[in-house]
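Amino Acid Chain and Its Fold in Token Form
===========================================
Structure side: the spatial fold of the chain, written down as a series of whole-number tokens.
Position: the record begins directly beneath this header, with no further notes in between.
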Amino acid sequence: MIKNLVQTTLDTALYSLGVYVHDQRKSGPDADMYVVYSLSGDAEEFHADNKVLVKAANPTVRFYYRSEKLDNYASRQTIQARENLIESAMKAAGFTLPFGRFDAGDVDGIGYMVTVFEFEYWRVV
């Protein structure tokens, strides 16, 4: 349920811009920008009287973009616009971003810079 919400939210916001969203790991051809998300552990559910009361999850969204995108002002503005779009789309879908996003650099050593978003989700059913 929550995994589908993350995928749908990000696809709706980014697909038309050519930014593809992947669960767990990227597949397919190289791209200038893409997103990989994962959930930390399984989504939690809190029960009472054999009914689900609360659903919770902590999805991590990683936005990858080629390092050369930092070489000029226009492409840096595009990166920032995509980051803002990810944040606003997820917040509109009910996620919070309690610690903000952060630039992790080229953590994988593959020539892509990474911005990391650690969202939280709590929903009373």
